[in-house]
């Protein structure tokens, strides 16, 4: 982006990134790739296929972009939302971004978000909101430059003229808004370039996408029609004022307008927050001068009715006290109008029609006729530089300019979030979820959703598969339902937890042991008299033993084959452990469900470090197993989470499972399979990695069969292969024996 010719502070190396022929930036890499949670590959599923990966990617995008915006603005209250069609631009309080997961478009999207965020930080929305809103045209008249207001004064002398005045003012508002946007965008972009140099690549990408269009570049150089004084052409050239091919002499008076804007000193338009226009229009600086509609009533010796809408706006504003941005936009518009009128008048003189009659020149301003006083057209420059010789595509350039105007006003079309994804997206963001790449070069690379916080809203979301629903297939609806047996399992777990917690309270007390008749230590006065009786060991020593804090990670296989009593018994054990953690200080418990929906998934349903035990009572009765068994993939995705406390705690990883690992994942038109011996070996490698990190792994095979005969089951050998010879096979009816094992384990002294 060739901005250095206008801003002395811009570094010249930005010039080296431009294609000198077109002015388009040469993009060599994706600057966003280093902070995204996923790689640059794009996987697109059919609309009919619910894509969890897409939802999480979008959540990751919004979270990252929001962080960028909040860092830039130093404002945590600015909301970043995806376009829903109803909103497409910033309003000073939120920034709207495209629902885009194509990594090739991230840089420009981030640049646009930062640009809109800078508006939130720097722009006076009270000024813009009040003066260029076509629904509130009267306020614009009150604030207008006198020479512009004169063009509509006469319209209020008749009742029919008021509609004509409205049309004229709204046409002016459109041009004033465009001019202010040109100035304001250059000002806030200069601020970011000067104060946040690290964001420049994102701005370059944004300008490349929205402004440095090849067809526009060619039209600026070669299109003679763009050098005819019209409102659209002045808009075209002003919008491209920073373009490498900008020609300040392309239109009459354009050079003067460039000096009015003065890009090198664009920061003179800066306004402190305290100096911005008050939010209430009534608090602005008004004069005692009547607005034109009041003057017209006075001329007729009529009282203006109180019910008349314009009665709310009786007086003009003090034009000289309005912001410099507004006054400069008015000055530029006045110059544009004069030069267009002068051009049309001169064309009439040169034609057979001769000089136009009357004291006014009638010009077309975006479909509205404007009367311009001829007296103000004296000695205006008509000269302009001719276009060069070259090919251009006028239609493509016009289409590109429309997109530029949309970008300038912040109203460009953005890829919208699908309505069916919107609520899930909000839920997934609240769940602290991210996609983790898991697997290795042997089994392949798989996406795995790690959800570190399950909320009530998540339970009823498509993103979360482990909840119990009642489906009405005729209506196509579903209702979240409690499972009565699951609720009973939780109640039983609380009872068992109360017993276990009572036994384990001893972990909170130091274990003091006294040793007597020691060769060293403190003198034991009780046996001091024996010193002369060939007894020399009259010392005592006291030791204090403390239990090391314990972190238990309980991972439950929530695949469909775990349904029924297997899952209920697991809920009982997990509830008991959660209760213990809520009552015993030096024991922490993290309970996760693992399985899959359309991708492997691990969900933290309880974390004693963050959650109140009431969460178990409220949530666990709704849990339900489903899907397949991506065993090792889930272990690999959560390896860091399991091992992160290995230094501070004695860490135990407890696994409840009933079968062999296996899953398949669809990414676009590609299916990834996980199973068989490669899955066994991969799971074993993940278990060994835990053990090497100091984690004690305890794996329990949950079965409906008699454990004395389990060795004849097909799953026996694979389970031993994955978890080692110390893997335990437990009948579902005796699964509570696991708690007795843990009770003994947790009472062992360090």
Task: Kindly describe this structure.
The chain is α/β, with parallel strands linked by helices and about 750 residues long. It folds into three domains: about 10-410, no CATH class; about 430-455 and about 495-505 and about 545-745, von Willebrand factor, type A domain (Rossmann fold); about 510-545, no CATH class. Helix content is about 40%, strand content about 15%. The chain starts with about 50 loop residues before the first helix and ends with a helix. It has an eight-stranded mixed β-sheet with strand order 7-8-16-15-14-17-20-21, sandwiched between helices. A three-stranded antiparallel β-sheet has the order 11-13-12, with no helix packed on it. It has a two-stranded parallel ribbon with strand order 1-2.
């Amino acid at each position: 982006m060739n901005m250095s010719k206008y801003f002395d502070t811009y570094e010249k190396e930005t010039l080296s990134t431009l294609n000198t022929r077109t002015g388009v930036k040469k993009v060599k890499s994706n600057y966003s790739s280093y902070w995204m949670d996923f790689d640059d590959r794009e996987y697109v599923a059919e609309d009919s296929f619910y894509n969890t990966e897409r939802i999480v990617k979008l959540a990751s995008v919004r979270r990252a972009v929001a962080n960028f915006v909040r860092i830039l603005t130093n404002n945590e209250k600015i909301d970043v939302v995806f376009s829903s069609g109803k909103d497409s631009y910033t309003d000073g309080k939120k920034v709207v971004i495209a629902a885009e997961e194509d990594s090739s478009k991230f840089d420009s999207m981030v640049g646009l978000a930062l640009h809109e965020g800078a508006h939130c930080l720097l722009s006076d929305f009270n000024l813009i909101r009040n003066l260029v809103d076509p629904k509130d045209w009267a306020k614009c008249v009150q604030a207008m430059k006198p020479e512009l207001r004169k063009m509509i004064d006469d319209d209020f002398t008749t009742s029919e003229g008021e509609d004509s005045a409205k049309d004229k003012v709204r046409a002016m508002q459109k041009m004033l808004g465009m001019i202010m946007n040109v100035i304001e965008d250059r000002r806030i972009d200069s601020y970011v370039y000067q104060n946040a140099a690290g964001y420049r690549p994102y701005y370059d990408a944004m300008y490349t996408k929205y402004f440095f269009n090849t067809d526009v570049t060619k039209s600026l150089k070669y299109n003679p029609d763009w050098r005819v004084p019209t409102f659209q052409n002045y808009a075209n050239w002003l919008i491209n004022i920073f373009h490498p091919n900008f020609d300040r002499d392309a239109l009459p008076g354009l050079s003067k307008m460039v000096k009015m804007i003065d890009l090198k000193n664009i920061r003179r338009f800066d306004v402190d927050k305290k100096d911005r226009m008050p939010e209430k229009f009534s608090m602005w600086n008004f004069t005692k001068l009547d607005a034109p509609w009041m003057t017209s009533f006075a001329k007729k010796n009529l009282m203006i009715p109180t019910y008349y809408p314009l009665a709310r706006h009786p007086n003009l504003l003090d034009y000289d006290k309005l912001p410099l941005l507004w006054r400069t936009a008015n000055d530029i518009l006045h110059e544009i109008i004069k030069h267009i009128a002068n051009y049309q008048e001169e064309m009439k003189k040169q034609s057979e029609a001769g000089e136009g009659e009357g004291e006014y020149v009638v010009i077309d301003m975006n479909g509205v006729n404007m009367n311009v006083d001829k007296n103000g057209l004296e000695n205006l420059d008509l000269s302009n530089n001719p276009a060069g010789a070259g090919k251009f595509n006028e239609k493509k350039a016009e289409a590109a300019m429309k997109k530029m105007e949309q970008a300038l006003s912040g109203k460009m079309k953005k890829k919208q979030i699908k309505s069916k994804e919107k609520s899930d997206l909000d839920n997934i963001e609240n769940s602290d979820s991210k996609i983790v790449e898991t697997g290795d070069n042997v089994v392949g690379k798989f996406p795995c959703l790690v959800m570190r916080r399950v909320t009530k809203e998540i339970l009823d979301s498509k993103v979360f598969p482990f909840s119990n629903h009642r489906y009405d297939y005729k209506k196509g609806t579903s209702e979240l339902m409690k499972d009565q047996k699951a609720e009973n399992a939780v109640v039983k777990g609380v009872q068992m937890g109360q017993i276990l917690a009572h036994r384990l309270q001893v972990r909170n007390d130091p274990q003091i042991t006294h040793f007597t008749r020691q060769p060293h230590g403190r003198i034991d006065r009780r046996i001091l008299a024996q010193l002369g009786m060939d007894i020399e060991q009259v010392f005592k020593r006291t030791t204090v033993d403390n239990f090391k804090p314990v972190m238990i990670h309980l991972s439950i296989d929530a695949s469909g084959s775990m349904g029924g009593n297997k899952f209920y018994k697991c809920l009982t054990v997990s509830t008991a452990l959660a209760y213990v953690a809520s009552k015993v200080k030096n024991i922490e418990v993290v309970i996760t469900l693992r399985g899959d929906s359309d991708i492997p998934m691990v969900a933290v349903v309880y974390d004693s470090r963050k959650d109140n035990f009431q969460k178990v009572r409220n949530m666990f009765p709704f849990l339900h197993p489903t899907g397949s068994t991506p065993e090792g993939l889930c272990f690999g995705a959560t390896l860091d989470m399991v091992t992160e406390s290995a230094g501070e705690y004695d860490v135990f990883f407890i696994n409840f499972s009933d079968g062999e690992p296996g899953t398949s994942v669809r990414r676009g038109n590609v299916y990834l399979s996980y199973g068989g011996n490669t899955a066994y070996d991969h799971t074993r490698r993940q278990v060994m990695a835990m053990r090497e990190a100091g984690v004690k792994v305890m794996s329990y095979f949950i079965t409906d069969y008699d454990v004395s005969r389990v060795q004849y089951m097909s799953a026996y050998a694979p389970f031993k292969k994955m978890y080692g010879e110390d893997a335990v096979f437990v009948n579902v009816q005796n699964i509570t024996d696991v708690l007795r094992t843990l009770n003994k384990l947790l009472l062992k002294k360090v």
